[in-house]
C-alpha cells in the first residue's frame, strides 16, 4: 500500500519479532471491513446483534480481568527518569524494549497481523497526525475504523517520506501479570501487550492523542488535552465554543451532547468532541480546538433517553458494544438505560436476571459509535482548523469542597485551578472506586512527560495567546449527608454554561471569593427546576475550613514535583493561602 521506507523497514522488523502467519493491510473499504465483521462473528470474538433493531451493531466481551485501563501497568519510557516525572511509571527505553520484545517474540504465530494506517484529525489538516497500528485483533481493527480515519486516506496523508507514530499491539494471552501499555515519546512509539480492552489497545486514543501528543505539543507549541469540545448556540443563533476537562467517567460525553431543559428553549448544544482536544493558537490570537477522533468510546451505564438522548441515538447503528448485557432478543441493556429485562446474558456471558445480585453490564462497559451519527454533531466537526474557544472548564466529582461553578481570576490562576483538580475515582480505570485523588487537568493518567513541565507549558502558552479563553471550574456532584446529588445535572448543566458564556461576554456579575469569582445565586437560572434557593446557595458556598484542609492535600501533591514545580504555580498557591487567611 505504500513505498514509505520508514513504514516498510519498521513493518519488516515487527514482523520478524511477532512472526504472524499473514499480514493484512487495512485499506478502509467497506468490503474488507464487512469480511472482518463476518470472520469475527464466526470465530465468536463478536456477537451479531438484532440487525432489525440495531443494524450494523455487535457485542464484544473482554476477559474478566481486562475491563478498564490499567494505570499501574502503563509506562512512559524516556531516556531520563525525571522526564517521565513523579506521576508516571518509568522504565529505561532499552529495558522496556528488551522486556517486551521477549513477550512479543512469536506472539502472532498462527495468527494474522493487521496493519492499520490511521489519521488522528481531519485529512489535509496541518494539525493532524498519522499513526500505524499493528494488531492481531479484529476487534481493534473494527474499533479503530470507528474511532479514527483508517486506510488509504491515511497512507496518502503520510506520503512517501512522512513520519508516523509506530503502534504495536498483540493480544497474546491477555495475561494481567504480563500486561504492558508502554509509550516511548522520544521514538514516537507505543507498545501494548496482553490486553484487548479499549483504552489499552485502541492506540490512537489515549496513547497517541494524549500521551504522545502531549509530548509533541510541548516541543511544538500546542496542547493535547483530555477535553470535550461543544458549541453552545443561543436563541439569537450565536455560537460560543467551550472545552471541558473532567476525569474519566465524570461527564464529558454527557455535557458534549447536552439537551437543553424545556425552560431554556431556543438554546442548542453542538458536539465537536467528547474526550480529546488538540489546542493551538490561531492567527486571530485566540485558542482553537480540534477533535482528533472520529467516533465516541462512551460509558454505557447511566446513558438513557432521559440523561443522554443524543448518545443513545448515536448508538442505534454501526456500533460496537463492549461488556454490556445481551437481551434475549439480541439487543443490549445496561444499568440506568431502562427497566431491567426479566432475563438476559450478563457481561461475563452468564445467564442473568434482575435477582442475580450482580450487575448485568460492567460499570465501565462502553459503546464505540461513529461521531457523524450523533444527532447534534457540530457543522465544524470536520473543520481543518477546529473551533475558537471562549472558555475552558475544569471539573471533577467532589462530594463537598468545590462549588457548582467558579471562575479563575486570570489565565495563571486558571492553570492553578486545573493543576489542583481532584476527583473521586471511577470504574474507567482498574483499582478502587470513589477515592479522592489529585488529577490535574484530568490528565494524570495521560500526560506523556513530567507533569511539572506540563504545568510550565500551560503557563508558557498563556503568555503566547493574545486573546485566551476564560477559565472556569464546575462540580455537578455535590452531595448532601445522604449522598444524594444536590444539583440535577445533565441537561440542567446548561444553566451553568449560560453563566459561563455570560461571564465571557462581560454580561454577568460575580462575587469575589478566596477561590475565584462565584455567581450570585440569582444569576443562575433555576426556572422550572426542582431545587430551592437554599440548596443553590449551599452549592455556591466556599467553606474556608474545608479549603484550608484542601490546601494541605495540594501541598503534599505539589511537593512530589520538587524543583520541577513552576514558580508561577507556587505563586498561585501562596496567593490562595493568603486569601484563605
Ligand atoms: P470517559 O469516556 O471515561 O472519559 O468519561 P466521560 O467523562 O465522557 O463521562 P460520561 O459523560 O460518560 O459520564 C460518566 C457517568 O457520569 C455516566 O454514568 C453518567 O450518567 C454520569 N453523569 C454524567 N453527567 C452527570 C451529571 O451532570 N450529574 C450526575 N449526577 N451524573 C452525571
Ligand atoms: C477514559 O478512561 O478516559 C476513556 C476510556 O475515555 S479509555 O479509552 O479506556 O481511556
Ligand atoms: Mn476519557
Strand and helix map with partners:
Elements: H1 5-18, E1 22-25, H2 30-43, E2 47-48, E3 58-60, E4 74-76, E5 89-90, H3 93-104, E6 112-120, E7 129-135, H4 138-147, E8 149-150, H5 152-158, E9 165-170, E10 180-184, E11 189-193, H6 198-201, H7 204-220, E12 223-225, E13 228-233, E14 239-245, H8 252-256, E15 268-273, E16 277-281, E17 287-290, E18 295-299, H9 305-314, E19 320-322, E20 325-327, E21 332-333, E22 344-345, E23 351-352, E24 366-370, E25 387-395, E26 405-407, H10 411-419, E27 422-424, E28 436-438, H11 451-464, E29 470-474, H12 494-504, E30 511-512, E31 517-518, H13 533-539, H14 544-559, H15 567-580
Parallel strand pairs: 1-6, 3-19, 4-5, 4-10, 7-9, 9-11, 14-25, 25-29
Antiparallel strand pairs: 2-3, 6-7, 6-8, 10-11, 12-16, 13-14, 13-15, 16-17, 17-25, 18-24, 19-24, 20-21, 20-22, 22-23, 26-29, 27-28, 30-31
Helix pairs in contact: 10-11, 10-15
The protein binds guanosine-5'-triphosphate (GTP), sulfopyruvate and manganese (II) ion (MN).
Amino acid at each position: 500500500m505504500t513505498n514509505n521506507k520508514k513504514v516498510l523497514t519498521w513493518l519488516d522488523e515487527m514482523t520478524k519479532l511477532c512472526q504472524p502467519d499473514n499480514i493484512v493491510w487495512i485499506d478502509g473499504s467497506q468490503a474488507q471491513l464487512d469480511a472482518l465483521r463476518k470472520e469475527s462473528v464466526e470465530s465468536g470474538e463478536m456477537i451479531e446483534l438484532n440487525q432489525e433493531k440495531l443494524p450494523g451493531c455487535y457485542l464484544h466481551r473482554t476477559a474478566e480481568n481486562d475491563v478498564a485501563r490499567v494505570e499501574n501497568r502503563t509506562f512512559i519510557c524516556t531516556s531520563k527518569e525525571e522526564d517521565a516525572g513523579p506521576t508516571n511509571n518509568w522504565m529505561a527505553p532499552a529495558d522496556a524494549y528488551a522486556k517486551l520484545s521477549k513477550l512479543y517474540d512469536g506472539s502472532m504465530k498462527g495468527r494474522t497481523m493487521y496493519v492499520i494506517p490511521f489519521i488522528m484529525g481531519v485529512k489535509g489538516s496541518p494539525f493532524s497526525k498519522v499513526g500505524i497500528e499493528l494488531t492481531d485483533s479484529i476487534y481493534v481493527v473494527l474499533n479503530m475504523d470507528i474511532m479514527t480515519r483508517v486506510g488509504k486516506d491515511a497512507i496518502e496523508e503520510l506520503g512517501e517520506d512522512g513520519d508516523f507514530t509506530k503502534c504495536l499491539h498483540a493480544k497474546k494471552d491477555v495475561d494481567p501479570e504480563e500486561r504492558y501499555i508502554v509509550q516511548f515519546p522520544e521514538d514516537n512509539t507505543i507498545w501494548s501487550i496482553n490486553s484487548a480492552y479499549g483504552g489499552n489497545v485502541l492506540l490512537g486514543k489515549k496513547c497517541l492523542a494524549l500521551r504522545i501528543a502531549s509530548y509533541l505539543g510541548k516541543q511544538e507549541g500546542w496542547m493535547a488535552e483530555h477535553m470535550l469540545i461543544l458549541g453552545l448556540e443561543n436563541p439569537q443563533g450565536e455560537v460560543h465554543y467551550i472545552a471541558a476537562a473532567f476525569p474519566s467517567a465524570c461527564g464529558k460525553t454527557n455535557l458534549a451532547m447536552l439537551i437543553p431543559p424545556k425552560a431554556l428553549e431556543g438554546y442548542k448544544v453542538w458536539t465537536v468532541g467528547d474526550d480529546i482536544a488538540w489546542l493551538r493558537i490561531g492567527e486571530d490570537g485566540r485558542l482553537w480546538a480540534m477533535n482528533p477522533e472520529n467516533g465516541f468510546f462512551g460509558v454505557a451505564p447511566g446513558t438513557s433517553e432521559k440523561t443522554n438522548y443524543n448518545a443513545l441515538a448515536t448508538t442505534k447503528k454501526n456500533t460496537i458494544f463492549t461488556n454490556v448485557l445481551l437481551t434475549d432478543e439480541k439487543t443490549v441493556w445496561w444499568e440506568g438505560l431502562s427497566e431491567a429485562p426479566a432475563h438476559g446474558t450478563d457481561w461475563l456471558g452468564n445467564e442473568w436476571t434482575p435477582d442475580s445480585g450482580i450487575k448485568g453490564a460492567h460499570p465501565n462497559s462502553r459503546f464505540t459509535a461513529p461521531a457523524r451519527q450523533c444527532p447534534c454533531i457540530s457543522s465544524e466537526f470536520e473543520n481543518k482548523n477546529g473551533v475558537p474557544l471562549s472558555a475552558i472548564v475544569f471539573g471533577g466529582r467532589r462530594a463537598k469542597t468545590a462549588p457548582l461553578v467558579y471562575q479563575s481570576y486570570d489565565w495563571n490562576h486558571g492553570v492553578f485551578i486545573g493543576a489542583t483538580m481532584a476527583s473521586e475515582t471511577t470504574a474507567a480505570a482498574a483499582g478502587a472506586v470513589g477515592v479522592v485523588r489529585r488529577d490535574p487537568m484530568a490528565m494524570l493518567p495521560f500526560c506523556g512527560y513530567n507533569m511539572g513541565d506540563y504545568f510550565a507549558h500551560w503557563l508558557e502558552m498563556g503568555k503566547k495567546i493574545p486573546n485566551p479563553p476564560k477559565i472556569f471550574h464546575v462540580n455537578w456532584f455535590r452531595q448532601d449527608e445522604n449522598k444524594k446529588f444536590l444539583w440535577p445535572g445533565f441537561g440542567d448543566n446548561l444553566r451553568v454554561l449560560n453563566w459561563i458564556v455570560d461571564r465571557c461576554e462581560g454580561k454577568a456579575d460575580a462575587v469575589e471569593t478566596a477561590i475565584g469569582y462565584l455567581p450570585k445565586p440569582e444569576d443562575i437560572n433555576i426556572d422550572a427546576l426542582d431545587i430551592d434557593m437554599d440548596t443553590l446557595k449551599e452549592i455556591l458556598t466556599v467553606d474556608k475550613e474545608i479549603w484550608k484542609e484542601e490546601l494541605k492535600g495540594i501541598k503534599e501533591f505539589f511537593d512530589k514535583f520538587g524543583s520541577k514545580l513552576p514558580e508561577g504555580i507556587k505563586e498561585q498557591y501562596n496567593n490562595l493561602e493568603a486569601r484563605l487567611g
